[in-house]
């Protein structure tokens, strides 16, 4: 049917985001290793806070997320006044694009960068600009060379998804110092919690006027289903983002659960340690059978196969074994599979199945 109704420019260029698959036809009891979720689930304290919130479902939630921001600030040693909470860090990315990009502007991201940067840029009529990585590692020189007077936002994830690699703070600082004056560097720290001793770039945010850090409760804290993320940045930027934020963008149950989760430092430490242990075990075991991966700093590994067809065949074989991993063709990594670090038994099953696939 012909219609004169048209969406804004850019929107029809968006390819729908593909989430990780969660079932295989005809199989029960599959293990989902396709969305980088915490196999141990959330802290018991978070579950209790979520349950307790069910008695107040008739009430509107807090609009300023003050208690959650204070809790985040307390754990990370930040200024609560410069934290903003969103429905996942996806929403913070969307706020940034809404507030700072638009028609005639450019949003930079890296070759294998997270898909929501491109989607959010297009949703706001901006032009996404993709910049090469250096062997699956963020390339600061390429990003600097990709900047123009139209650049408004430069997104990097550190560690990056789906590569698992990361760059050092001095490289990030070089990037922040080198981008044009009108541009913001966004440090996406969705996996920062997995890196012992890494602040996600928070100190750099404090030292610069043009850096925003995004973080999430979806990964280490095991709350992907609740949709809570946050951003930390200079006061002038957080003020702008709060103006486009809906007043009730997070449910109270989500806010309360996130607050309990971040205060449960011992459980977060436990999850980080278990992840590192089984990630390293899985990476070593796969390397031994001819499936290498870059050193991963996150809760997944990017397993490299000999060819696109081998990766595809392995993915199909894993499915028959009830193991769902992630193909990353859309991330321009056709001969790779991204495998989330599961619990011990899941990691052992994956390695066993890939060994069988390889005929070892
Ligand atoms: C690099 C990166 N950034 C942001 C997100 C968004 O996470 P959420 O919206 O659940 O906070 C993800 C999720 O997979 C991610 O991998």
Summarize the structure.
The chain is α/β, with parallel strands linked by helices.
Number of domains: 2
Outline, from the CA principal axes? globular
For the record, what CATH class of the largest domain applies? Alpha Beta
Instruction: Provide the CATH superfamily of the largest domain.
Output: Type I PLP-dependent aspartate aminotransferase-like (Major domain)
InterPro entries: Aminotransferase_I/II_large, HisP_aminotrans, HistidinolP_aminotransfase, PyrdxlP-dep_Trfase, PyrdxlP-dep_Trfase_major, PyrdxlP-dep_Trfase_small
Family: Belongs to the class-II pyridoxal-phosphate-dependent aminotransferase family. Histidinol-phosphate aminotransferase subfamily.
EC number: 2.6.1.9
Domain Aminotransferase class I/classII large: 29-354
Structural description of this entry:
With 360 residues, the protein is α/β, with parallel strands linked by helices. It has 2 domains: 11-41 and 266-358, Alpha-Beta Complex (Aspartate Aminotransferase, domain 1), CATH 3.90.1150.10; 44-264, Aspartate Aminotransferase, domain 2 (3-Layer(aba) Sandwich), CATH 3.40.640.10. The protein is 39% helix and 14% strand. Helix 3 (88-100) crosses helix 4 (115-123). The chain is globular, with a radius of gyration of 20 Å. It starts with 30 loop residues before the first strand and ends with a helix. The mean pLDDT is 97. InterPro entries: Aminotransferase_I/II_large (IPR004839), HisP_aminotrans (IPR005861), HistidinolP_aminotransfase (IPR050106), PyrdxlP-dep_Trfase (IPR015424), PyrdxlP-dep_Trfase_major (IPR015421), PyrdxlP-dep_Trfase_small (IPR015422). It comes from Sulfitobacter marinus. It catalyses: L-histidinol phosphate + 2-oxoglutarate = 3-(imidazol-4-yl)-2-oxopropyl phosphate + L-glutamate.
